[in-house]
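call fold(seq) -> C-alpha cells
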Amino acid sequence: MSNPVASPLERPVAVLSAMLLTSLLASSAALAAVTTPGTQASIIAMSQKPKSDAVSITYAYLPKDGTLDLYALSSSGKMQKTPVGKVVLKAGDHRDVSVSLNPMPKKGERLEAVIEQNGQPVAHPSDKAERTFKIL
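ret:
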C-alpha cells in the first residue's frame, strides 16, 4: 500500500515543482501577450506647407511592412485612384515621415494618408480626420 503522507524530502520537491510550473505558465502567457498581433494601423497628419516637394506625416504605425500613400481628395471628399506620394515603411512606429509629392497639390487641396500592404489599403480604426490634411 502507498503511504498518503509525504515524507519530509518529498514536500520541498513538490513545492519547487509547483513553483517551476507556475513560473513557466506565467512566462508563456507573457510571451503570448507580447507576440500576439492586435495593434492596428494608425496615422496622424497635420495641415502644412510642403517643404520643397514633400510633406511630413506626424505619426504612422504599421503592424506589418507596407507603404504610406497620400491621395488627393475631390471637393466631395472622394479619394482619387492614384497616389500623389508614397513611401515604403517597415513594420513599427514612425514619426515625421517625409513623403515626396508628384504632382504637387495646389494650396488648399486636401490629402488623405493611407497605409497599404500588398497594394491594398489597410483598415484604419482611427478617425478619418486624423489622416486627412490640407496643403497650406
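The chain is about 20% helix and 35% strand.
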